[in-house]
Amino acid sequence: MSRTIRQNAPNIAAGSSTMGPSTAAPSTLDRLSRRVVVGLLCTMAGLAAAGTGGAFLLKPGTAQAGRVVGDTLRTAANYARLPAMIFTLSDGDRLRELRVRVVLDMEPTAPAKTVESYGPRIASAMTNVMLETDPGELRGRNGAFYIKDAVMRTAAKELGAMKIRQVLVQELVMR
């Protein structure tokens, strides 16, 4: 039995001497992990540079000294509400009732109270426009566009120099 141990011992020693210190090239896994780490570091550096550049490009807004906050908010929206208008339309066989409520979005320089004082005049002028309207023109989606256009033209004639941005329909009901 000692003889078999002696024979195996030189083989073990010989195998260990061939292994020696690890001087071989790094494995594929090591090279791949280094590339991933370098790639992640480059990505992080790029994102940091982009964030810093964005911070310099997007400067915060400057405060407007001497301006009252209420004036700033007033210039954003200037609405004038017109009175509810009720029109009677005829389609040949029967009479239809049309109820319309609109709001005018005015330029910031036009005082809303002044525009609202023109409301009865605009409603009266709209009555004349709607006498010529066929109820079939007001059906579907085109009805709102027709009303907006008619109110825009009529209000522009009545208001003269005051500019209207948009006509907003609050209610449009035909019975």
User: In percent terms, what proportion of residues is strand?
Assistant: 15-25%
Q: Look at the helices and sheets and give the structural class.
A: alpha+beta
Supply the CATH architecture of the domain at 73-174. Answer: 2-Layer Sandwich
Q: Find the count of extended strands (DSSP E, 2+ residues).
A: 4
| Multimeric state | single chain
* Distance between the first and last residues' Cα: 115 Å
The CATH class of the domain at 73-174 is identified as Alpha Beta
The sequence of SSEs as H and E is: HHHEEEHHHE
Q: Estimate percent helicity.
A: 40-55%
Q: How many helices?
A: 6
Largest sheet: 4 strands, antiparallel
The overall pLDDT, averaged over residues, is: 78
What is the molecular shape? Answer: elongated
What is the third-level CATH name, the topology of the domain at 73-174? Answer: Tetrahydropterin Synthase, Chain A
Low-pLDDT parts are 11-17
- How big is the Rg? 41 Å
InterPro entries: FliL, TAT_signal
Membrane topology: Single-pass membrane protein
Transmembrane segments: 36-58
Subcellular location: Cell inner membrane; Cell membrane
Structure description:
The protein has 175 residues and is α+β, with helices and mostly antiparallel strands. It has 6 helices and 4 strands. The chain has helices at 2-19, 28-57, 69-76, 112-117, 119-130, 141-159, and strands spanning 79-81, 85-90, 95-106, 164-174. Strands 1, 2, 3 and 4 form a 4-stranded antiparallel beta sheet that branches. The protein starts with a helix and ends with a strand. 10% of the residues are buried.
